[in-house]
Design goal:
Blueprint lengths: L2 H14 L16 H5 L4 E10 L9 E8 L2 E5 L3 E5 L3 E6 L4 E6 L8 H11 L1 E7 L4 E7 L5 E9 L6 E9 L4 E11 L19 E4 L2
Parallel strand pairs: 6-12
Antiparallel strand pairs: 1-2, 1-11, 2-3, 3-4, 4-5, 5-6, 7-8, 8-9, 9-10, 10-11
Length: about 210
């Protein structure tokens, strides 16, 4: 899965606030995966920036994502990723290509897999809370693809909300995700999580199954 798809999947996982909490961090983010699954679906708007060298950030770009059970849809600047839980359509907009694969072949980086792995694999530590009530929490997993994640969480709200996340990837790069808006329990048709080739007659469909 390309890095932009991973970014959106991670952002969805953060929207669920499914992290393993220890020490003082437990008082702030003791919200587990089951809370996310209590909602029919989640819709999220976020911005993201990529730093290939881990220091210099690129321009901010906008992303939009939806998650409903095993199905998800991710819209980025130049690509879309859609899955109904069985099939994944990776649509490269500029190339006018859509690659079709089995969902079972990409489960490591799906939103639900990330929800589970965050809860199971990461250790959380509270670094501090500033005057505005923004808590900094460090997530560490030396054996994971994402070695370290720094979360900024607004503790002044009725339920702690994640404002942003700095994600440090094993290749030395960094991604900054800022969550702008979240909605829950939208009315989404099943076809929403499929790619309609009839609406894109010029797109070359490459079936990789």
């Amino acid at each position: 899965m390309k890095i932009k798809n991973i970014i959106a999947c991670i952002a969805l996982a953060f929207a669920a606030q499914a992290v393993s909490a220890q020490n003082n961090a437990e008082k702030i983010i003791r919200v587990m995966v089951d809370q996310m699954r209590s909602h029919k679906n989640v819709e999220m708007v976020f911005n993201y920036q990529i730093s290939p060298d881990g220091k210099t950030l690129g321009e901010s770009e906008k992303g939009h994502a939806w998650l409903q059970g095993e199905a998800y849809k991710i819209e980025m600047t130049d690509q879309q990723t859609i899955s109904d839980g069985k099939t994944i359509w990776s649509y490269l907009i500029d190339d006018e290509e859509v690659m079709v694969s089995n969902a079972s072949e990409g489960t490591d980086n799906t939103p639900l897999k990330l929800l589970t792995s965050l809860d199971e694999s990461y250790v959380a530590t509270l670094s501090g809370i500033d005057a505005k009530g923004i808590a900094t929490i460090e997530l560490a997993n030396p054996k994971g693809q994402y070695k370290r994640v720094t979360l900024k969480i607004n503790t002044k709200k009725s339920r702690p909300n994640i404002d942003s996340a700095d994600i440090y990837i094993e290749d030395g790069s960094k991604v900054v995700v800022t969550i702008k808006e979240m909605k829950f329990d939208q009315e989404l048709d099943d076809k929403f999580f499929t790619f309609d080739a009839k609406k894109h007659p010029k797109v070359d469909v490459i079936d990789m199954r």
